[in-house]
Amino acid sequence: MYDIVSLGELLIDLIPHDDFTQEQFAYEAKVGGAPVNVLSGLAKWGHSSAYIAKVGNDAFGRYLKEKIERADIDANHIKVDSKAPTTVAVVTLDERGERTFDFIRNPGADQLLTKDEIDYSLIRRTKIFHFGTLSLTHHPSREATLEVIKYAKEQSKLISFDPNYRPLLWEDQDDAKRMILEGLQWADLVKISDEEVEFLTNDKEVVSAAEQLARKYQIPMLFVTKGKEGAAVICNGHLLFEKGRTVQPVDTTGAGDAFMASVLHQFLVKDKPISAITKEDLADMLQFANDAASMSTMKKGGFGVVPAIDELQINNRTEV
To answer: Model-level pTM greater than 0.90?
Structure first.
């Protein structure tokens, strides 16, 4: 039995090396893909997991599979495509560690995962199924993702969703909005950013707009992240907000995924249905997730960058 199974993109993040200059481009290759970043955090904290994805038959694909196996994530369900290459994301960091992405994906192997390549017994053998929207941008991975989501719902699995909206990867932004909203309809637990809420609702009052989304789509537990400002959670009639932490970020690539991993870790540790989650539980989740997310920005990349549990326990929290 797995604690969590996820399906999604699997790609290379090319992150600027310390020696990077405008005259000499130097990059580090890191494991990329929001869902697998989430699994890497959970694996580091002792949870069992498996990843469903597709890579190219190339050096990057082999590198990704090896790194995932070394992180104690079941990589046996990562397929290899003989025609399309592994997707690459070129990351640009500004002086504050904030990142932007350029993608080499036309198509990438991750887009070519088919529903016939899925081992559905994985879904029967997990507590949680987690997904994002990058596997929904194109066919046939869209059909594969939706098929697994529906099967997970039929099997009464808890469904976790982080939209992870990347405008450059969508040919049609209205289609992106439709797919994110469809994801919300299936999800029990959602992590969504303030920018994504505004994209969906055209409302700058992000928290109240998120409350409306939670009501409309009957989402039992919804977290809204607001970058360094902190995060809010809407669940069981409670609305809580916690401020962010003061850190000097190196790279913010993994912050959202660390937050998502933290929420799922706390949910697994508390071992109770969402309907039984208390206000105190939610406060614990927010504190843990904010700490882990902020500390993850002190390392490059998003894979395996969450701090150890004992680091979080001794971390002195500083509110901004």
So the answer is: yes
